[in-house]
Amino acid sequence: MSSPALTTSAPAAPEADAPRLGRLTLLTVCACVMVAQSMVAAINLLIPQLTSSSLHPSPAQLMWTVDAYVIAFAGLLIPAGAAADRHGRKGALLTGLALFAAGAATSALATTPAVLVAGRAVCGTGAALITPATMSILVHLAGGTKRRAQAMTAWTLALGLGGALGNLGGGLAGQFLSWRALFWAMVPLAAVLAAAVARGVPRTARVERGNPDPLGTVLVTAALVAVLFGIIEGPAYGWGSARILLAFALGALLAAAFTAHALRSRAPLFDPRVFRSPRLRAATLGLAVSFFGLFSLFFVNSQYLQGVQGYGPALTGVAILPVTVGMALAPRLAARWQATPRPVITTGLALIGAGLLGTATAGPHTPYGIYVLWLLVISFGTGTCMPALTLGVLTSLPAHQAGLGSGLGTASRELGAALGVAVTGTVLAGAGRDFAAGMSSALVLVGAVTLLATGAVFVGYRERA
């Protein structure tokens, strides 16, 4: 039985004659991931406009308009990353941008809620191809460990900026334009990025062609979709409802079936024994926890600023932008201690937890200056730990599986994000009309869980794979 994924050495540097990572290539692939991530958050600020639009979506249809992107995005990340490694990362990136543009155009032209949901799902499928392909391209072009760390810092900054800029773009569209304008804007943007990729991004060596493992792809995708469905729909149907329990049971059953299949297969989608690595387990947990906290904040942020503080959509988008400050500055400071990532990771996660507990104290009369200080704490925590966690995943896998590593890492983030939104939404629903009290309770819970998980990551992370 072959087990090609069990090697845990750090990704090797490119050969001397391999193309190197230029500034234009770095900016292009980071712009791609920024655009893909922005569409996770942008739709949230357009919900009021969509509700009163000519589509007249029901509450369930509105929820699926938001969730279809996340489910397709996160559910397909692992097979998309493996496909990029096997069939070519540049081709996967160009295909992803084409699907992203097609999905955006479909959404902009939608005359029924079902078409809008379908367009969002196609966009999410494109994003699932874009995200792991971009990281894998950077890993293979960056060169030595120092340059690889710098590239990962830029990539994770683009990921964070994407969420913040999505809020800003959604707010501006909600305030001054139609919701369709946001989707139309994505079409030429994706086309420009595709042209830049085609012209300026070199092709990288790919894994030798072999069995693409269609059964493994179906099993792991279906397992992720079932779990995501349970997490996202849990607040609506009740965590103890038969539908939600069935979704989680189905997800566990499919994951077990994939594991059994992969252990017997000669060329599996990926070998589940990679999770024997303590570093990989701790790094994926850390990525999930960081986005668990960050997206819990994103979920309440716009509602708090608009519903409690009385901000308009555009001002709300601007008021959220300080979240990007720490994400831009902290990685440069943290890079000095990149040789010993465990304290960097745990410090960053602890800052996220502490910032969430601080944000929980915000109320109707809290000055924005105080509120933004806590946003900055969370931002600096995210910027501190994310590059090291991302590298922790990648250095637990061999270089030729960089796309798979990116898929595993990003799937962990998106699962954490979905769980954060679901937990926060459940607590808010229990609080009824007292949003400030519900927000406080939710963020205290999420902050406490984040701090507890920080301890688990500290214990489990190993400096050496």
Write the topology of this structure.
Layout: H1 23-41, H2 47-51, H3 59-87, H4 89-109, H5 113-142, H6 145-176, H7 179-200, H8 214-237, H9 242-264, H10 278-308, H11 313-320, H12 323-334, H13 341-359, H14 368-394, H15 402-430, H16 435-460
Task: Describe this protein's structure.
It is globular, with a radius of gyration of 21 Å. Residues 1-17 have low confidence and may be disordered. It has helices spanning 23-41, 47-51, 59-87, 89-109, 113-142, 145-176, 179-200, 214-237, 242-264, 278-308, 313-320, 323-334, 341-359, 368-394, 402-430, 435-460. Helix content is 77%, strand content 0%. The longest helix is centred in the middle third of the chain and has 32 residues, at 145-176. It folds into 3 domains: 18-207, Up-down Bundle (Growth Hormone, Chain: A), CATH 1.20.1250; 214-268; 277-465, Up-down Bundle (Growth Hormone, Chain: A). Helix 10 (278-308) runs parallel beside helix 13.
